[in-house]
Structure formats: structure tokens, C-alpha cells
Amino acid sequence: xxxxxxxxxxxxxxxxxxxxxxxxxxxxxxxxxxxxxxxxxxxxxxxxxxxxxxxxxxxxxxxxxxxxxxxxxxxxxxxxxxxxxxxxxxxxxxxxxxxxxxxxxxxxxxxxxxxxxxxxxxxxxxxxxxxxxxxxxxxxxxxxxxxxxxxxxxxxxxxxxxxxxxxxxxxxxxxxxxxxxxxxxxxxxxxxxxxxxxxxxxxxxxxxxxxxxxxxxxxxxxxxxxxxxxxxxxxxxxxxxxxxxxxxxxxxxxxxxxxxxxxxxxxxxxxxxxxxxxxxxxxxxxxxxxxxxxxxxxxxxxxxxxxxxxxxxxxxxxxxxx
Amino acid sequence: xxxxxxxxxxxxxxxxxxxxxxxxxxxxxxxxxxxxxxxxxxxxxxxxxxxxxxxxxxxxxxxxxxxxxxxxxxxxxxxxxxxxxxxxxxxxxxxxxxxxxxxxxxxxxxxxxxxxxxxxxxxxxxxxxxxxxxxxxxxxxxxxxxxxxxxxxxxxxxxxxxxxxxxxxxxxxxxxxxxxxxxxxxxxxxxxxxxxxxxxxxxxxxxxxxxxxxxxxxxxxxxxxxxxxxxxxxxxxxxxxxxxxxxxxxxxxxxxxxxxxxxxxxxxxxxxxxxxxxxxxxxxxxxxxxxxxxxxxxxxxxxxxxxxxxxxxxxxxxxxxxxxxxxxxxxxxxxxxxxxxxxxxxxxxxxxxxxxxxxxxxxxxxxxxxxxxxxxxxxxxxxxxxxxxxxxxxxxxxxxxxxxxxxxxxxxxxxx
Lengths: 322, 416
Prior knowledge:
Largest sheet of chain A: 6 strands, mixed
Number of domains of chain A: 2
CATH class of the largest domain in chain A: Alpha Beta
Strand content of chain A: 25-35%
Number of domains of chain B: 2
Oligomer: heterodimer
Order of helices and strands of chain A: EEEHEEEHHHEHEHEEHEHEEHEH
Low-confidence stretches of chain A: none
CATH topology of the largest domain in chain A: Rossmann fold
Mean pLDDT of chain A: 87
Number of strands of chain A: 14
Structural class of chain A: alpha/beta
Number of strands of chain B: 5
CATH superfamily of the largest domain in chain A: P-loop containing nucleotide triphosphate hydrolases
Strand order of the largest sheet of chain A: 6-7-8-3-9-10
Mean pLDDT of chain B: 74
Radius of gyration of chain A: 24 Å
Radius of gyration of chain B: 28 Å
Shape of chain A: elongated
Largest sheet of chain B: 5 strands, mixed
């Protein structure tokens, strides 16, 4: 079943953070960060460990007192002492924030009551939420008997229980098996499609690329770049690359390809030729045609598009997982 | 929040063991072990002879010599009953013996024997209505069962000495052999005395014990039950506070902080759940020991108020100390080490009154020491509610000081 994505109405953003600053002793963990998330938008905060992601979302969820700046959730100002705006936020911390000695449903019951849910509403939501994360058949089992991935999914369920308009997930797939990871990503995608605003922090580039409508790249407490994946790549000015192998004739091949229209650069790397060219997929037929016309034996061909990893590397000079 | 947290805590097996099972089992074991045991500590017994003379002093000295008292029992002589009572109140002695002083009005052995015979004549006639002046009274400090037993043994020895004297004198009189020159004839029939003695009708002087029944084992459980409850109050509250530290490292506190609930409510809920569990455990132990062992903790109002004051003080101190820890492991060590040290200093593992004087003084620097004084007065001395106002006042002060400190500390733990 294909679900149409509910997009923002153009009214107030669900979350609006302006000029957030937070220091620990002399170290500025968050340094003038601003971003916003609209309804139905999945915003990825991408950065290495220690970049300031968790501090930023802790401020955005009212867990941490900021030094300066402003956070608004659905237009209501939020600080660490706020009560009402917190009802709109579903927070899924990085650590497993559940009571291991209680069952999944008891944990959800506990946290649901904190959000004012009760009676049939609560029981209904418990079942719906466990269904969403694929744990309905384990609802009465203790959390301590769950696998790591199941615990993570239960952790997400606790954040979803009260149907928040903003779901904040802090690296929810760290240390999770591929099956659970996929289940988590699908659940987040589904929720975003249903109109929930999602703030998703990760240092896995592929997750950000798969899930997020917009990405903010954070490094040393600052957002160094922001936009859709394509915008970020264009911002960087990176070109697509075509990697070609022509057995034993790479020199001749390179000469042919240099003459093609639109080619910016041709680099010989060992037995391979790397062609830098905008919109490589569109140019692929002419590249192949030129090689065949010149009787060059094409053995392999690969299109490499610039990704967020490359963008991050270019912006920060560091690998994402450093 | 309190109810939810309470439910969560009672599903934790270690909390059940610490709060409900361990205090009951240990109190039972200690109660049974020490219920009829002699003391291992120092026992100070005061003796007073009302209107003493050479004869009565001689009788008492003979009785003490016969008793062959071990080194850990010290005898202190007093000049008045008031001094003995005061000594017990001030904890300078643990028990007192009051020997009737009119056994020999002229100070001669013959007079003494005559008076004893007169006494026994009276007993034959009205043994069930023996006048108080012929009773050897034993009084003991309520916090102490063992000194009462020791004093009772010494009194029995003195009593036996009087009885022996009576028999010797009577036999001498009947046979006419080795009569002291000063012996005067006795008005009533010596044959009757001897005959009745042989038949077992003449019994040693009875003595009254001005306290409850120390030696039955039942009431020593009435002492050890609150004593163990106090120890596990500290450990149990420490576990609760440790749980809060663990919640911080485990992440659930973060989720609570993200919920639309005031941090004050979270703190209050956590602390209240610890207090409720602690109170339930002590009240339950009170009921269990009363039903199963027939143990009496004393005046119900006094016990109830003392339980509340003790729980608040012990939990306040325990939560405060545990909340200083940065990790769960540190919290565990803090509650275990301090709990054990307090139990030793406060005297929780020892029979009542068995601590040497210097340790009794030190025990009053601990909240559990004060609680034991209160529970001892109620269960061992038979004090009413007013008798424990002092300990309640001290415990209340400790509860207020550490309660406030705990609220502040836990507030900081809950805030990220």
C-alpha cells in the first residue's frame, strides 16, 4: 500500500530552533544553531560523535537548559521547565529508556499515564504502537527478555504512544541488527509519511539519505550545511564520476573520453579510467558509444554519484565516522 | 508517579527480600538465639539493702560470693532505692536488686534467724499475700533483657543464702548441737519449719521482677524485630535511591524528564515510593512477629509513631548518602558499607543492654541507636507513648535535615 506523504501546510513549523547556544565549562557544545522542521518532514541531523547532536536535541526537547536561543514547538515556547509543549514531543533517547523488569505493555502503560493517557485510550494506543514497531506478539513479555533490536523498537514505541506531532530520535539504530534496523527505518518512514515531523540524528549517512527530506550537517556544535541531499551536493559543486575499465587500453580510452562533450576531467588510476562529468547517467550512452566506435574493449563500468559522506568530508575535512 | 513507581519496585525481587523477608528471618533467628542466652557484654548491677545492718550485709555478701559472678558482671552498691532507680534511668547501671532491710534488727545472726523464722511463719499462714517488705525486688532497664536475667540470678543466690541460713538455724535448734551462745529460744515450733521444709512447702523468698518477661524469647523478638527492620530500612531505602541513580545511567530518567511532568513531581514520586515501601515493610513485620511469635513491641501508639519517625530518619539519611554517588556501583557500596557500620555502632546486632558503656554512648550518635532506645523503652521497659517522645524528637530532627538534603540531591540527579 502506498501512503501519500502529508506535507506541511505552510503554517507554523512543528519545531523551530533559533540561535541555540550551550556551553559545558569552557567548551561550546552547541554554537548558534538554528533549524526548523515542518509537519510531515523528516529532518536528519548528521554528524560524527561529539558533534553536538545529542545536546541540540536535548535542548529541543526541553531536557537541557540552554544558555541562549529559542525553541518553539507548534508555536509554543519550550524550555527545560516547560510542561505543556512537551506533550507534543515524542522523545526516543539513544539509551534504552525502559524498565527491564516490566513487560513491554506495562512500560508503555507507565509512560502513557505520564502523558495523560488512561483507560481504553491507553490500551488501544499500546496495541497500535506495538503493532507499528512489530512487537504486538511480545506485548506481555518482559523487556529484559528482548533482543537488542527488539528493545530499541520498544524504546521507539514508548516515544510514539501519545501520538506526538514531533518525534525526536537520537541515533535509534546504533548497535542494532540489520532486521531490526530495517524495521525501525520503515516505521519512521511510515510515521513521517503520515504527517509526523521527525528529527532524526545519526552518523550513518545511508540512513539520512534514505529517510530524510532535509539534512543538517553538524560539526563542532555548528550546522555547517543544510538542505536536501541534492541541494547539499550541488552546494558542494561535486560532479558525478564514471569508473571505466578497458582491459590493457586505458591510455587510449582516456584520450577518447577527454574529447567527449561535457567531460570535465579524466583521471587514469591504474588500469581504470575515472571520468568526472555532470549528470553522468544521462551521458552514459554517449560514453559507451565512443568506446565501442574506437574498438576499446569495455570490461566494467560504474557510475558514482557524490553522496553526503563526500559532502561531509569536503565540509569538515573528516570522515563521518571519525 | 508514586503508585506507578511503587508497583515497579515491588516487582523487583531484591526489594521484596530486603524489605519483607530478610528483616523477619533475621529477627527470628536473633530472637531465638538470644532469647535465653547469657550476655556476652558488660552487665552492671546495682544493689541496695534497705536499712542495712551487719547481718543483712553478711547475707548479701554470702549470696554474691555463692553466685561466683564472672568478670563481665560488676556490682555497684547503693544507699537507697531512689539511687538505684536513678542509676537505671541514667544508664549507669543496667539492673538493680532491692533487698529488704529488716531481716535483723539488732544486727546479730540470731536476730536475723529469728526474723527469718518470723517471716516464714507469715508465709505459712498467708503465702499468697506476702508483704512487699519481704520481697527481693529486681528492676532492670527496659532496653536490656540480659541484665534483668543476671540480676534475677544474683537475687536468687541471695535468697538461697537466706533460706540456707534458716534451715541451718532450725536444724541447730532442733538438735541442740553447736548452738551459738547468744541464741535465744524461738517462740514458734522449729519442728514445724523443718517438717515443712522437707515437704517442700518452705520455698526460698520470692522476688518480683519489675518488668516484662525477658527470658521467654518472645519479647526479645519484640526487640530484635524493630532492630532488624531499622537495618533493612537503611539498606532498602539505599536500594531505592540506587535505583534512581541507575535510572539516570539507564536512561529512564531522561524519558521522565522529557514527559510533561514537573521534575518536583518525579522527585517526590520516587522518594514517596521508597517511604511507602519502607513503612509497609516495618508495619508488616510488626504484625507478623505479633501473630507468629506473640511478640510485643509495646504501646501501639508509641510504636506507630516511632516507626514513622525511624523510617523518615533512616530513609532520609540513606537516600542522601546514596544520592551522593555518581555511579550505581558507588551507590551500592555507600549503602552497604554505611548501613553495616551504622548497624554495628547503633547496636542492632547485639542483645539489648549488652553494649559496653562507651559503645552505648557512641550508639546515640546514630539514628538507629536512638530508634533502638525508643523501641527498647516500649518493648522492654513498658513505657507508654510519652516515654519515646525524646527519641522521636531526635529522629524527627534527623528526618527533617536529611529529608531536605535528599530532596535537593535527588532533584539534581533527576535534572540532567
